[in-house]
Amino acid sequence: MSDLQEYKCPCCGGAIEFNSTVQKMKCPFCETEFEMDALKAYGEDIKDDVNSNFNWETSAGTEWSAGETDSMKHYVCHSCGGEIIGDANMAASSCPYCGNPIVLQNQFAGLLKPDYVIPFKLDKEAAKEKFNKHLKGKKLLPRAFMSDNHLEEIKGIYVPYWLFDTDVDARIRYKATKKSTWEDSKYKYERTDTFSVLRTGAISFDKVPVDGSTKMDDTLMESLEPFKFSEATTFNTGYLAGYMADKYDVNAETSVSRANERVRVATERAFRETVQGYDTVETENSTLNLKNGVAKYALYPVWILNTTWNGQKFVFAMNGQTGKFVGNLPCDKSLMWKNFFMTTGITFVISFLVMFLFGLIK
């Protein structure tokens, strides 16, 4: 009995006591009653709760072979510090991050060789077409933006990604409730039943991508997903011809925290979808144990355009494999107010005519 008295109420967190009148465990704060067997089972569930375990093998990438990087150069932007890799024949270009000229060129050295690459499937003309389609029909888009957006400067760049594979054993406990109401001639009643719901199982993840560059906005890059890894191939420097490659500045070990978060959210979402038939469901404890966690290094194709309008920077990107396009557009406030007053004026005139025709105004 003393062990049971140490438990907190699953509903409000108060200390539970044995009530001799009802012969049940009862919370003196919210007055919820519990059968002893149910409370014991709940206590056993709590004892099994442990901390999650996230372990990865992060030895992604390989060493370059002798002479393999002779045709590659390392370019640095003096303006924003962006670093990219290209072949030795790449003409003087502008920085894909800030648009300023790239002026410093060094011999490539010091990076791991990617394990995989997804080659560009869509060319520059396809990227320009997608961009123009993205602008089409935007009534509040500044007229000057279309002509001043430097569309010819759109760049094809391979973005570094760390890809994480893992198996997950999950144990998630939920607090769920069901509400019922009824009434008689005098009163209305409401009852809330509380349940402890336990889910255990295993789930596997394959090639969870984490952007390996601080210059590429994580939200923007994740918006371009999914990439089709089935079309990936073993990396070869020939795929860099005509394109740039972003130099990773976030290693696999540092990227683990983001991979953990993506795995955790996806796992908890999948398990939560199995808890049905309740009015409310809250996660009380989530324990995830990763097994066979490994990371690989890959380059994914992205068309990117950085442009500035009216002193504000806008970034547009297209998945170079699937054509998915993302990016925010500027809004011309003068056009917005003009449309507002025009719409308001037309509505007023129509309302006036209708009222006049029906004799409401003389």
Please explain how this structure is put together.
- It is a single chain.
- This protein has helices at 2-5, 36-47, 124-135, 143-148, 218-223, 252-272, 333-357, and strands at residues 17-19, 24-26, 33-34, 72-76, 83-87, 104-107, 116-117, 155-183, 188-211, 233-234, 244-246, 280-309, 312-319, 325-327.
- The chain has 362 residues and is of the alpha+beta class.
- The chain has three domains: 1-47, no CATH class; 52-331, no CATH class; 334-362.
- Strands 4, 5, 6, 7, 8, 9, 10, 11, 12, 13 and 14 form an eleven-stranded mixed sheet that branches. A three-stranded antiparallel sheet has the order 1-2-3.
- Strand 2 (24-26) and strand 3 form a beta hairpin.
Q: Helical percent range?
A: 10-25%
Q: Indicate the low-confidence ranges by residue numbers.
A: 1-5
- Helix/strand order: HEEEHEEEEHHEEHEEHEEEH
The total of helices stands at 7
Radius of gyration: 30 Å
Protein structure class: alpha+beta
Quaternary structure of the protein = single chain
Quickly describe the structure.
The protein is α+β, with helices and mostly antiparallel strands and 362 residues long. It has helices at residues 2-5, 36-47, 124-135, 143-148, 218-223, 252-272, 333-357; strands at residues 17-19, 24-26, 33-34, 72-76, 83-87, 104-107, 116-117, 155-183, 188-211, 233-234, 244-246, 280-309, 312-319, 325-327.
